[in-house]
Amino acid sequence: MMLPVAQLPHLEHVLQTVSVLESVVLSSFGPEGGQVLFTRDTGQAMLSRSGTKILTALRLENPLARMIVASVLNHSTVTGDGSKTFILLLASLLRMIHATACKEPNVSHTYNPRKAAVASTARHLAKRLLEFALEDLDDLIAVGVVPYGCCLPREDFTLKTRPPKSIPCVQKLLASFFHSRLGQTHCDFFSHLTCELLDNWKLKNDHPSVALQFINDNLPTLHTPVSGFPISCSRLIEGQVIHRDFATSCIRSDKPPVAAVILTGCLQPTLLRAGEVLELGCGDQQTAENSRKERSIVQFSAWAEKSLECAIANLQSVGVSVILSAVKQSAAVLALAAQAKICIVECVSEDELSLFAHLSGAKPVADCWMIEPDNIATLTFCRPILLGAHRYVHVAFHDSDKRPVVKPCSLIICGAGEGQTDQYACALHDAIRMLLSTWEPTGMTASKRTLQCNKSKSSIAEKQIPNSTSSQRCLSMPGCVVPAGGIFEFLLHHALLQHGHSCSASDETDMDILAVSQLLANALLSVPRQIYSHSPRCFLQTQTRLLRLVQSHSQRSGFADKLEQDTVLKECEDTSECTLDEGYRACIYIKILTCHQRRLCLTQASSPSAVNTICF
Amino acid sequence: MSRFVRKAPSVCTDRPLNNSDVSTKLRSLKQLLTSCLGPTGRLKHVQNNIGGHVVTTSSSSVLLTSVTSSQPIIDLISSSILHHVSRFSDCGLFAAVLCLSLIQEAKQSGVSRQVNKHLLSLCTSYLQHEHCGCRVPVDLSSTQDLITLSLSVVSSKPACVLTEAEALHVSRLAVRAFLLTVPCGGPGPVTLGRTLSVGVEGASVLHSEVFPGLLVEVRDVFCLRTAETLRSDPLRVVLFSTSLAGDLCELGDGIIQVHPGVDTDSQILDQLLELCECVIRDGVKLFVCQKVVHPVLQQYLRRHGVMVMERVGLSLMEPLALLTGALPVATLHATIPAKAYGTVKEVSVKEFGSKTMLHLEPAGESAICTMTLCHRNETMLSELKVVCQQTEHVLRLTLKEPSALLGGGCTETHLAAHIRHQSVQEVAESASALGCSQTEYLLGVEGFCRSLEAVAAALHHDGGDSFMDLTHAHHWTRPADAMTENMEDNSALCCGCGMVQSGPTVDMKWTHLNTEHPEFSPAALLKDRAVQPRVLDSFTAKLNALQVAVETANLVLDVRFVIQDTN
């Protein structure tokens, strides 16, 4: 069958596609944005304000749109945020490029050549833009934006006490993140809860990112969604919740500590392995001349039962009263364990067992005959807990010096329905990822580089690799945050304009830099324009206030007049949407540009097969 | 069979609440649910489109599960309400009607969702406040309040078709069953027992009963015959959770070679007989097995005067273990330890209509009881069973939080009056804190209170008018056939919950619900009143319903875009 020959992606078509995506994303962008309701293919209604979720739910067919969505996904898996801004900036940049290309004086007026000329100018512009972004943008951000930001205090993540009553900086950051994810009504409650979670998970003498990484990896097992309750019922509980019920009726022993083992195998021994042969005789008729004993099936099963009884007795002798088993145990095991007052939890998932092992310091054991003291975990309690419709097992760990975490705790996320709890959990996960990327910008650049190497065959992406040292230099300051409300875009806009002027003044020949930086600067302003879409006056006020600050600031040195700067920035925050960390914003620009560059290459591709290869 | 299926692109709707189709659907859902509210609510027939079984009901859980809509917004609302109902078993229709009217009100006035959230926090803090005028403490030492509470639940389900006397009987039974499941153990955490229910079709509702212990349906004639001969007290019980049919045990994947002439079946059977012998020697009189017992064993046991109950099933095993105190046995070779045996006080045969049941009475104190529910036909019986379960749940919630709210719409009107009063007092602070103008704020308050009052007014379906008195802000109704237009002229009326009575001696003023009236601070009732409330609602359930309704309404109002997956 012949593939339908698609119309060549012309710049206008590209613009059209991106505009459609933009209009979808805009409905949930900014402080006035709302929720997007979508149905899964199972028919379940889900809610989200996350850009990635919305874009994937669209199930697009247009190859171009799909490619854009794929790059958004790549971007947000690393940063956990910024997908809506990605689309917004992309649309704005494309519009700017299109407008500039059409205005170019060297475009002739006959129709067909004109089209080609516009395309080639656009392509040229985009190429310059990418080069500019890779070479100069990081330095510009370092000079023009970073001095106005502030650093997340390390105390928010470490054990050091911070001054009482002050709202930690992290909480502000989280509040603005949740504002953009869950809406205004729940952002305070949820950011407070997340901060408490972080507080409890502080590690002894470790870099904050280690604790964050740990939460990020274990979040699915650390939280329990409960539907049917209002969000205000969400809370932290001590210890861990194992998402299984007791297989035996739980005999409650109230005296702590409770000894527990993690068992990865079956307690009942496998009697006959494959290939083994069991010979059955008549039982007690034992022939004297033939020394071989003939056993009956009854004797054999009696022997099997006896060995199981010994195993249980062995467990009893080491004082074990709870068994967390990775597999299903037989009915005989359950009955014998109940008689020996041992509780069994069956079919516990691997992730939960490994978290339990990590927190308790006990090693899992496959065979109950090999139990050593370091296989036994001591718990302060192990009891059933009823959460929503399910009964789970709730364990709390005994304090020990070996354990790296101060206060392990789990999170119960309540919501009116499954759609809501799911949304809260996703937002929480993204928030943790966002904090992590704020603390670990170097790791991010590395992953970004690999992504681009893998993905794109265009020569530009390869050229970029040696340049990445400069981006590392800029981003090596961990925990840098910029106040919300488009401050980042305003500052960068200003810095870009300054840079463009200084370049064109020093070097008359290089007009491209001026054009490119002006283009980028104007495109940037579309983001704050959307943030303040409900009141354009606010937009102008914030911009003028910032410009005044920058001018007064330029005479003095970087962090010296922090006080004054803070007051101005606080005013800005009143009208702000979200505090965004600076690191990943830089990432957005670079990624957008590569994406864009590839799209312009598409416009030049002359055969549909080429389009197909690039798209897939 | 796995085949790659091309995914169709999704269907998008911008600003769904402005869509006329969505508005119509929301309105008709509201009409549907409103007409079901309360003791005089109208029943609905539910039938699927291929003409299956017809269900007659007025309960939100059945209605909302059968309402499947192509509109995800409707799905979102109904899933929220259903989750609430599955946790609290009560106030589902209240939550649904409140949520839908909040959406309608807010759509008209266009106020911000922050106002609703603020008003919700005012409501919850008032309801939890000790001077709250619509909350009454539940006295757990007497059954009066508990019966009122369960009567309110039972009578709010008209699909049970109960007369007043029958409703009272059922609610008394529910309270009795509930009290039987509360163990009178010492201090420390208490584990509530279980109530099992058995339905008997065809008998009068008044023949329903509650028994301590378990009623197990038996069809085996031999079993019943032995039951009459058992006289020792208490009876020793053994409980097997494994099959005693004489099959081979699990051996693994290996190969089994059997010598010629060896009869493994009889060997196993001999061994089982040995086990039975041991059981008989230990003085067991009742032999219960979850699975099948070999007929030879059954006969052997019966000959020795032991009663055998086989195939009782997994669901009965846990109550049986709790009742008898026995530990289930799954080993066939080891000697059964003495502590694995349990006891029952007495076994007797009871007849209910066509059913013959074996009644196992607990020897000591046990928190297991069985309710036999009788009703005229199957549909009503199934509804009655559900109602009894819900009542039990509501009573259990009361144990955690021993208070209740006044029913009959009085809580809603009182709360609305209180919110109106409080927000007028604090309008300046609240408006500035929420970042909106005072007019906007008051508009939001008006919408919120109107929605609350709409729920109270929706309790009546017979064309009567709803009123509110201007002293306590309770809810009153004037029947449609009343002689006079004014409430003042009616003598000796009573408010929805029965706490306030009008009469010639009481000076009281009324206003129509949802009409303009001067705001006032509703007075709380005197604490030491002789009058008992006639209708009470579960505090925990209603509070949660209120929160879920407002939260869901806020969410729905926040939805800007709908993406529907068509695959």
UniProtKB/TrEMBL annotation, chain A:
GO BP, one annotated term: chaperone-mediated protein complex assembly
Signal peptide start and end residues: none
MF terms in GO: ATP binding; ATP-dependent protein folding chaperone
Xref: InterPro entries: BBS10, Chaperone_TCP-1, Cpn60/GroEL/TCP-1, GroEL-like_apical_dom_sf, GROEL-like_equatorial_sf
Domain of life of the organism encoding this protein: Eukaryota
Keywords: ATP-binding, Chaperone, Nucleotide-binding
Pfam families documented for this protein: Cpn60_TCP1
PANTHER family found in the cross-reference section: BARDET-BIEDL SYNDROME 10 PROTEIN (PTHR14667:SF2)
Family the entry assigns: Belongs to the TCP-1 chaperonin family.
Protein name, entry field: Bardet-Biedl syndrome 10
Biological source species: Labrus bergylta (ballan wrasse)
UniProtKB/TrEMBL annotation, chain B:
A cellular component annotation (GO) from this entry: cytoplasm
Matches recorded under InterPro entries: Cpn60/GroEL/TCP-1, GroEL-like_apical_dom_sf, GROEL-like_equatorial_sf, MKKS, TCP-1-like_intermed_sf
GO BP term, example: inner ear development
Domain of life: Eukaryota
GO MF term set: ATP binding; unfolded protein binding
Record protein name field: MKKS centrosomal shuttling protein
The organism's taxonomic lineage, starting at the top: Eukaryota, Metazoa, Chordata, Craniata, Vertebrata
